[in-house]
Amino acid sequence: MKTPALCPLDGRYGGRLGALRSVMSEAAFTASRVRAELAWFEVLSHLKLPRFAVLSAQETSLLNNLLPLSEQDLEIIRALEFDGYEDIPATKHDVKAVEYFLKLRLKNTPLRDRLEWFHFALTSEDINSAAYAVLLADGVEEALWPALENLQKDLAKLARKESRSVLLARTHGQAAVPTTFGKEIRVFETRLNRQLKELKKREISLKFGGAVGNYNAHLAAFPKVNWATAAQRFVAALNKGRKIKIVLTPVSTQVDNRDTYAELFDNIRRINTVLLGLCQDMWRYISAGLVRQKTTAGEVGSSTMPQKVNPIDFENAEGNLQLADALLELFSRKLPVSRLQRDLSDSTVLRNMAVAFGYALTAYLSLLKGFSKISFDRTAAQAELAAHPEVLAEGVQTILRAAGYPNPYETLRDFTRGRKMTPALWQEFIEGLAVNGPTKQRLRALSLKNYLGSAVQLAEGKYD
Predict the structure, then answer these.
(1) pTM for the predicted model, two decimal places
(2) Which of 22, 61, 70, 302 is catalytic?
């Protein structure tokens, strides 16, 4: 019987998260631990240590063939931790279980005389720190990054498409001056672009200096080896083919300082803040009838009101962004702090980093789906704008101010407030002004459709 899903990420959203599951699941974490142990083993073989020759091509192949882990491998590692396996009692320790697994798999190979070099001079946090760095880098690179890039492209395309689609802007919820729908979408695209550039420059740190970060055991066994350089070689092995770089923390306690974690989480939260505003604006545009949603045959919008098409993708994204941000904020606040050289309260928190990424990715995918189903109703937007000719007051008073007309702001305030403005009233007002011919011509030419400033150029990406 399939285990019932406890979390929506494994239930209703599970089908969307394949890319993330492949790099941040518990199985992926276990595989990353194995990868870290193998990388360190190979680094050791190049240090000219006694009884540890450089690995041959055959021996290197033996190590490489241990990955990817099979379902049986994962079951053996789990058994080594919780139940015991063959003649090995339960370790009750996840990293030790990985070490014993490697020794079991290689005990009948040419490497059988070097098995004690696995996990040499390390503490479990060295391996965990490396594994979590890999998970975070892969989660960003393989899951969040592609979804965000696709979303940015969709926003840029929509901004260009609707660059000339006039829209009544609203400030404080009240009718303001005209803009275009494309320009308002471009605002979010440029903000997302800025944060995405920062995300692509992120580095993820790890520590690799033993029990309290001093290379105590390393130097006790081999005092002439430059262990910091060896650690850098280990990090280099983890970075092969990687876009988001993993870096070594030079000075640490038993745990990494995790300042880079906080920087990453805060970066993702800033992205999510931009997208949260986008969700809420799209919800309002849909509510006002300015944005229409495509219908799908047989799809139900409301269980009781069959005519409804609810903005569920944007609502879903909003809620999942908030869930992700709640966890990311906790991680940023919690993980860089440790009592003295180490306490274990971080362990269960670290195990939930994939959950935050899962809710974030779910939100990004919901937004992508939402934008694939919408269209801007230009007719409705033009009708709404036409119903508010009073918004030209800003332009009129500014032209009068430039022409030296006395008290233009106060004149427009007294004329427009409390009055239902119409084009005819504007025409009467303008014709009654004692201004020169060129000024009057500029006032006559002013209209709701052309009072757009540089909105069209901005929407098209022309910022200079």
Answers:
(1) 0.93
(2) 302
